[in-house]
Write a structure and sequence with these properties.
single chain; about 160 residues; alpha+beta; 60s Ribosomal Protein L30, Chain: A; five-stranded mixed β-sheet; 3 helices
């Protein structure tokens, strides 16, 4: 079994179907050895938990962290769909985390850690990345977090 697939099993993660675009764009674009993944949100978890709303209004920091972790699982599912083999991931290069939050909420980096922590847990040092985490007034479908990712891959 592949190394990353084995780690996913070890940490109890079953990948969902890769999220489909909700507009006129493609899920990913590869240029040379870089794969640019379009932003995804936290589709409902396998146990039916769904996160909606703004952090600091409808959701707590902990709930938003869990939503960002679900986004990370969806990003890995998209990677698997695009690459076929997750062991082709050489490095998670960069994340852009957008957090639907109240105007006075200032802990967007703590929310984004839900995804970042998962990527390091699954990919080890290859999962360490640069990142931006910004607060926004709203996101599509009233989701609390959307994250896009840049990945260096083996061809």
């Amino acid at each position: 079994m592949a190394i990353i697939e084995s780690r996913l099993k070890t940490v109890g993660i079953t990948l969902p179907a890769s999220p489909r675009p909700i507009g006129n764009y493609v899920p990913a674009v590869q240029i040379h050895d870089f794969l640019y993944l379009s932003g995804v949100g936290p589709a409902p978890s396998s146990d039916g938990v769904e996160y909606l709303g703004a952090v600091g209004i409808n959701l707590t920091l902990d709930e938003a962290y869990q939503a960002a972790r679900l986004v990370g699982i969806n990003l890995i599912a998209r990677l698997k769909d695009e690459l076929g083999d997750l062991d082709r991931v050489r490095r998670i290069v960069k994340l852009l985390s957008m957090v639907n939050s109240s105007p006075d909420f200032c802990e967007q980096p703590a929310v984004a850690n839900g995804c970042s922590d998962l990527l390091v847990e699954v990919f080890g040092d290859r999962g360490r990345h640069a990142r931006s985490a910004v607060g926004v007034a709203a996101l599509p479908g009233n989701i609390p977090v959307e994250i896009e990712m840049i990945v260096q891959v083996d061809k």
